[in-house]
Amino acid sequence: MSLWKKIFKKHHIGVEPAKYFEVKIPSSPRFLCSDKACPCPGKEQLIPGKTGFLFISKELVQLRATALTYREFMSKANRNAQGRGITVFLEQGVYEPLFMCEQAARKRGLDFAVAAADAAYVFKHGWCPLRPTPKQKSI
Ligand SMILES: [Zn+2]
Q1: pTM of the model
Q2: What's the gap in Å between 65 CA and the centre of ligand 1?
Q3: Cystine design at 48: which of 21, 52, 89, 129 (Cβ 3.0–4.6 Å)?
């Protein structure tokens, strides 16, 4: 059994999904739109799964595919720090999924149902699906 499965089993009840990676959730999260590309003021309190959506980018999935736990990711980041600019990743927030308002989710063309379910799941469990957020099929 792989490490992530061992850890995951502790957190998860029910059907085991494909793969998840661990997200550091603040002890008292502020549910604000964190999409810098979004024109909203980012001050409105959002409800994950209702008015708050999650965007998982392809880059993030690539980055976390080999570092599913937060500990693994941090050691990977530290290893890379000397060589490449992992801090650039960190500054841009690419290392964690983006929590955002409906306006931002619409702008990015996200599948609302999936993006909402992902937001609710991540804040509840601290684990995020290892696949990019699907796009809306048609607008
Ligand atoms: Zn917004």
Answers
A1: 0.78
A2: 27
A3: 52
